[in-house]
Amino acid sequence: MVPGRDEREDELPEVEPVPDDDHEGNEPVLGRHERYRGKFPIEVRGLCNSFGEQVIHQDLDLTVRRGEIIGVVGGSGTGKSVLMRSVIGLQLPSAGRIDVFGRSITTGDPDDVVGVRNRWGVLFQGGALFSTLTVGENVEVPLKKFYPELSDELTHEIARYKIKLSGLPEDAVAKYPSELSGGMKKRAGLARALALDPELLFLDEPTAGLDPIGAAAFDRLTRELQRTLGLTVFLITHDLDTLHEICDRVAVLADHKVIAVDTVPRLMELDHPWIQEYFNGPRGRAALTAQALDELKKHMDMPIAASAVKALDKRTSKGA
Ligand SMILES: Nc1ncnc2c1ncn2[C@@H]1O[C@H](COP(=O)(O)OP(=O)(O)OP(=O)(O)O)[C@@H](O)[C@H]1O
Ligand SMILES: [Mg+2]
Fold first, then answer.
1. 144-148, Cβ contacts within 8 angstroms, sequence gap of 24 or more
2. Fewer C-beta within 10 Å: the chain N or C terminus?
3. Residue 248: which residues within 8 A CB-CB, separation 6 or more?
4. Is the pLDDT reported for residue 317 higher than 60?
5. Residue 125 CA: which ligand 1 atom is closest?
């Protein structure tokens, strides 16, 4: 089950408190092998983004907790990818402040992001693999950039390990992106995102275009990696199954801002037309039924669960 807000806060390891009055300035640069110990790896305040006349974000706030998988949803074009690009410093906002690992990345001063950029990994919406490089070489790109002192042999070895960790067969190392299926490309992108042992992982629509089985496998992999590697995951998705299955909380983008951040069940109680249509529409209900079915199947030895599974199975096969 996806833990609720309070349970997750209990799960958070002891953290050194960040004094509020220290927040105007940057926190000290983290040592290269030191992990971030603050509570909130991402804090966005009053973010504004526009392209010409088109306003994308207006006074957007969002706080991401360490160790959570936060889903980001919103209609197409609401600015989910632009938000992600702002957080990783690829899009300088017109106003607002973004702190990542306690350091402002919106001042435009490259010194401010020292020791921060190599702590995150990104899987872009389109995959963004270099088409002229093999999968192995793609994964080596960030390694060579941030750790040029590593020997070639060690760099190859780390890349091979990340490729395996992402669930690709060993022979994928030497393949070019054009030789991979859509699902394999996503996994190759994930391997590259994991190259630097990130603490923060950004995934933009990782299951889009995958068949339901491939999408469910990718979800399980994301959850497993988040748990075993202690990652915080910023996950943009339209996939209702993903939201139900693996997200601890979900942030909803609408009206140029984040209008709500909560667990899916609590979001479903909110009286907002987009939220109601999205989560309580036919697809939302089907995803919920499928999740209930999965939960019940774990208890098939109990007669009450077995009969409920039969009833739900009938509903889902009719497309409820
Ligand atoms: N570099 C850019 N220049 C001009 N407009 C842009 C740029 N990048 C994004 N936009 C516009 O900003 C809006 C938000 O784009 P964004 O890619 O963030 O949407 P999204 O919420 O990720 O949508 P989708 O769910 O379809 O991926 C869109 O209208 C898009 O056309
Ligand atoms: Mg997008």
1. 146/118, 146/196, 147/196
2. N
3. 2, 3, 8, 68, 69, 70, 263
4. no
5. 27
254 domain residue, yes or no = no
Task: Tell me how far apart the alpha carbons of residues 99 and 45 are, in angstroms, rounded to a whole number.
Answer: 9
Tell me, using a 6 A CB cutoff, whether residue 82 lines ligand 1: yes
Taking the chain, what is the end-to-end CA distance rounded to the nearest angstrom?
22
Residue 231 in this model has a pLDDT that exceeds 50 = yes
On whether residue 320 sits in a domain, the answer given is yes
Q: Write down the pTM of the prediction.
A: 0.82
For residue 242, the SS3 value is helix
Question: Please, what sign has the CA dihedral across residues 51, 54, 58, 63?
Answer: negative
Pocket probe mutation, ligand 1, options 60, 73, 81, 252, max atoms within 8 Å of Cβ = 81
What residue numbers bound the domain in which 306 lies? 281-320
**Total number of domains in the chain:** 1
DSSP state of 177: G
For residue 73, list its beta bridge partners: 252
Kindly give the distance from the C-alpha atom of residue 238 to the centroid of ligand 1, in angstroms, as a whole number: 15
Question: Residue 47 has what pLDDT?
Answer: 96
Q: At residue 209, does pLDDT exceed 90?
A: no
**96 located within any domain:** no
Mutate to test the pocket of ligand 1, among 50, 56, 58, 88 (most ligand atoms within 8 A of CB): 56
Residue 80 Cα, ligand 1 centroid: separation in angstroms? 8
Q: What are the two backbone dihedrals, phi and then psi, of residue 249, each rounded to the nearest 5 degrees?
A: -140, 160
Tell me the CA–centroid distance for residue 42 and ligand 1, in Å. 21
Q: How many CB atoms lie within 10 A of CB 178?
A: 9
Q: Is residue 312 part of a domain?
A: yes
212, 152 Cβ separation under 8 angstroms: no
